[in-house]
């Protein structure tokens, strides 16, 4: 299912450039060295300069697109398997979210929202915590 925005509370239009193709509603991170926007990922061995998740892509952007907009607060639809009322975490696959916090040592556990339904969640970005 494709992601769609049900509510956009805080849209941050940046002057940053997409470092890779970004899909609408994907979890994104900013590379601390280059400033480029990439898909966020909680997986072990992931490039540490790209974490944590800073928000979700407002739209689809091609690699090299400028003025990428990032949503830091709002309601997003298009996820699956969420449990209403429970936390939503940054996933181990680039750009995704999950209802289960990563448990692999070295991964990042970052709560990125709270489920409203099995397919919708409110975006609330928490701190990125390393999994021991």
Sequence-ordered SSE layout with sheet pairings:
Blueprint: E1 4-13, E2 27-30, E3 37-39, E4 55-57, E5 69-77, E6 87-90, E7 97-98, E8 108-115, E9 120-123, E10 128-130
Antiparallel strand pairs: 1-5, 2-3, 2-4, 4-5, 5-9, 6-7, 6-8, 8-9, 8-10
What does this structure look like?
The protein is mostly beta strands and 132 residues long. The protein has one domain (4-130): Virus Head Decoration Protein, Chain: A (Beta Barrel). Helices cover 0% and strands 38% of the residues. The protein is built from no helices and ten strands. The relative contact order is 0.24.
Identify the notable features of this structure and list them briefly.
single chain, 132 residues, mainly beta, Virus Head Decoration Protein, Chain: A, ten-stranded antiparallel beta sheet, 10 strands, 38% strand
Q: What is the CATH C level class, in words?
A: Mainly Beta
The appropriate CATH architecture is Beta Barrel
- Helix proportion range: under 10%
Remind me, CATH topology?
A: Virus Head Decoration Protein, Chain: A
Integer count of domains: 1
Radius of gyration: 13 Å
Count of runs of 4 or more consecutive helical residues: 0
The counted number of beta strands is 10
Q: Which structural class fits the helix and strand makeup?
A: mainly beta
Biggest β-sheet: count, sense, barrel? 10 strands, antiparallel
N/C terminus separation: 33 Å
Runs in which pLDDT lies below 50 for 5 or more consecutive residues are none
Task: Report the order of strands and helices.
Answer: EEEEEEEEEE
């Amino acid at each position: 299912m494709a992601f769609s925005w049900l509510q956009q509370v805080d849209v941050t239009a940046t002057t940053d450039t997409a470092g890779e193709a970004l899909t609408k509603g994907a979890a994104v991170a900013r590379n601390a060295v280059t400033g480029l926007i990439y898909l966020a990922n909680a997986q072990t061995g992931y490039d540490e300069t790209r974490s944590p998740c800073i928000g979700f892509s407002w739209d689809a952007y091609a690699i090299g697109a400028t003025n990428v907009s990032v949503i830091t607060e709002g309601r997003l639809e298009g996820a699956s398997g969420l449990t209403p009322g429970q936390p939503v975490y940054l996933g181990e696959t680039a750009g995704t979210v999950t209802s289960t916090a990563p448990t692999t040592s070295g991964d990042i556990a970052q709560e990125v929202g709270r489920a409203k339904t099995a397919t919708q969640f409110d975006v609330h970005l928490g701190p990125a915590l390393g999994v021991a």
